[in-house]
Amino acid sequence: MDANQKPNYCELVMDFDEANDYTGAIWREVRADELEEVARYYAEDEISSERRVFGEEMDTVEFQIRVEKRIAEAIEEYRPLIRVLDLVKLNIQIFHVFSLSISRTKVTNELFLEDGMSKLLKKDGVFTDLSLSDEILFNF
Description:
Elements: H1 16-23, E1 25-28, H2 32-54, H3 60-78, E2 82-87, E3 92-104, E4 111-123, E5 126-129
Antiparallel strand pairs: 1-2, 2-3, 3-4, 4-5
Helix pairs in contact: 2-3
């Protein structure tokens, strides 16, 4: 390593209680308007990804029809699986969408229970997928 380079590591700057006090963190149920926003974000991402992966050609109207259909499905799917961590003092919401699935191996026919969670941050009206991001939230 170059003598001028310092390793980039993290240190704990606030413990649980301090972080809660600083952010005003509260867990709560998702509101209907927020549920629709989250469903729209994921629906648009899913349909756009399918279009890229499968090379599908679709006009704006067809895209919007598929998105609206997926939003309706996602609202029902996410309703029991979503919780909100509201960082009140920072005007940030983190939407936790939990999932559960069962998979089966094709050769040995074994079943696997899989659970997971995706996190979607909303700051200043803009969503960031924390499940896929290394975004720095704050730079003091």
